[in-house]
Amino acid sequence: MSTSDQRWFHRRGDLARDGWESVVDGATPGWEHTGIRVGTLSDGEHLTLDERGVERIIVPLAGSFQVVHRHFPGEWETRLHGRASVFDGPTDVLYLPAGTTAEVRGQGRVAIAEAPTSGAREWQYIPASETPVELRGAGRSSRQVHNFGTPQALDAARLIVCEVITPAENWSSYPPHKHDEHVPGHESRLEEIYYFETAPVSGSDAAAEAAFGMFSTYSSPAGEIEINAMVRTGDIALVPFGYHGPAVAAPGYDLYYLNVMAGPDPEREWLISDDPAHAWVRDTWTGQSFDERLPYTSDKEGGR
User: DSSP string spanning the chain?
Assistant: First the structure.
């Protein structure tokens, strides 16, 4: 059930285009600074990335892939070993700068985070073992963040990318916050994409399609927005402005989301402002432990 503004929330398949399950880019109404492509590949199939005016991070969601990428001064082939699922800890990823064309082959599901730019950077392969893993929050607000595409971890021109795992019954993207004003040193202007996946907790007999979480946004002085939605694998929320959060994992089901951010500010910074009505919640985490189920890694049975 949803009471969401359909400009900003899209069910799996609503944004299908050119062989991709979902595409968000400059052709999406009201969208300018970020993009995402999500696709599923079988053996022998490939997906093509031929627009040169964007930088990208290729993120295996499930499965492994070979990426042939072409940019100055030549052509390379990079293997992404991937993972069984997004709930099996971090994956290796590939950053491709503007001016690159590529083909992705393999088996599984893959996401491509994008941002339009003319900025020149070096391509970079980031193995899973070098992905910064952060446990954020505490108690029932505990979640696991993979910061492979944040300013501290990656030298990109515009893109800021991370992924978050929220165990069943926990809250994340909380307190609600925003980043839609340029306030130097305090807040940056960033469009944001949330791509969701959900799954029954490890060991459950529940059907995968039954899994769900909840996600909300609401208005700020920068603009009016409302999303109040049950989210499932493949759903996408667009946050051009406004407060966003919480993202809540329902009892019995784990929640994952990939965040893609970029904006018009001169500096590539991720600075947020909490909703003043709920900012006090952060103080309640003092002295609480992280959820003992975290971290989720491929070393654990079922990845969890």
Answer: -B---TTTEE-TTTT-BTTBSEEESTTSTT--S-EEEEEEE-TT-EEEE--SSEEEEEEEEEEEEEEEEEETTEEEEEEEEEES-TTS----EEEE-TT-EEEEEEEEEEEEEEEE-------EEE-GGGS-EEEES-GGG-EEEEEEESTTT---SS-EEEEEEE-TT-EES-S-EE--S-BTTTB---EEEEEEEEEEPTT--S-GGG--EEEEEE-BTTB---EEEEE-TT-EEEESSSEEEEEEEPTTEEEEEEEEEE-SSSS-----EE-TTTGGGGGGGTTPPPPTTPPP-TTSGGG-
Output the pLDDT for position 279: 98
- The Cβ of residue 251 has, within 10 Å, a number of other Cβ atoms equal to 8
- Give me the mean pLDDT over the 245-259 stretch: 98
Q: Is the pTM of this model over 0.90?
A: yes
What are the tokens at 44? 């022998």
Give the pLDDT of residue 6.
Answer: 84
pLDDT digits (tens, 9 = 90+) for 14-45: 999 999 999 999 999 999 999 999 999 999 99
- Number of Cβ within a 10 Å radius of residue 198: 27
Average pLDDT over residues 274-291: 97
pLDDT at residue 299, as a whole number: 75
**Angle at the Cα of 208 from the Cα atoms of 204 and 209, rounded to 5 degrees:** 140
